[in-house]
Amino acid sequence: MTDIYTLNQRYGIQDHLHFTADANGMIYAEVKNRLAEARIALQGAHLLTWAPTGTAPVIWLSEAAKFAAGKSVRGGVPVCWPWFGAHPTQPSFPAHGYARTVPWQVLATSATQDGATRLVFGLVESDATRAQWAHATPVELHLTIGTHLECELVTRNAGTGAVTVGDALHTYFAISDIRAIKVLGLEGLDYIDKVGPSTLRKQQDAVTFESETDRIYVESVADCVIVDPGLKRCIRIQKRGSRSSVVWNPWIEKATKMGDLGEDGYLKMVCVESTNAADDVVNIHAGGEHRLWVRYSVEAI
Ligand code: TA6
Fold this sequence. Notes:
Blueprint: H1 4-11, E1 17-21, E2 27-32, E3 36-41, E4 46-52, E5 79-80, E6 104-111, E7 117-123, H2 127-132, E8 139-145, E9 149-156, E10 163-165, E11 167-169, E12 172-174, E13 182-184, E14 190-193, E15 199-202, E16 213-218, E17 224-228, E18 233-240, E19 244-249, H3 251-258, E20 269-276, E21 282-284, E22 289-300
Antiparallel strand pairs: 1-2, 2-3, 3-4, 5-11, 6-7, 7-8, 8-9, 9-22, 10-21, 11-20, 12-20, 13-17, 14-15, 14-16, 16-19, 17-18, 18-22, 19-20
Bound molecules: 6-O-phosphono-beta-D-tagatofuranose.
């Protein structure tokens, strides 16, 4: 079901949610309730923007982001699934899996008692997806759009044998200036430094940024907090179902090469990703499921 009229008839909610399409046929869920606004592309169930009412956007979207079928969008909350990073054996398979570049469908929508909007999306399997992943593992993304943003990636193993999955909510957060912020919650942890040859290091204090940063923190289970004096706010990242976190900023040289971060876009974003990456991949037994859950909230400072 991808025609806008039917989507709005079946899943639209007055004062909460309606669906639109752009000139390329990309379909979007437009959420505007009394607590927040958000926009989600059906491709990839990709949350593009989220701003609690009266608050500057919390999720960053590149001004140079490209919206085209089969192409990942720079920014928002990309769903990385069913592997994180490069495919372990197939170099031709897309980095971070295929989930973020294939169609998802709306499975359910509702308004909550406190005024938030709930949406459930399901990945639409196809010959193309099965060619990269033959397992019977239906995957859903559950979103709750309100004063807080909750995202839950649910993988079910409907097959007859165990399956190993890597995944992530690869979230881009909007900040005042990468040189002025710090990230708390990772102090004392080991991390795999992916800038240059992979090297295991230990995080001493808060994470600060003065060059390209690409790190997989292991045994990371505590909340992370982005402290942003420029915007006079902190963004708290709570999570369950993940024991690794990735912190990433491409800095100027890589950002320029990537071409879709916009002019100085790298200064205005930081990725703090809740992941099942590196050794933290998850083994799901037949009939089992895995839930990767995050909750983002904004606190004034
Ligand atoms: O999560 C960090 C990372 O793996 C970086 O190495 C960089 O590749 C980033 O993801 C963006 O990846 P993408 O495939 O979205 O361009």
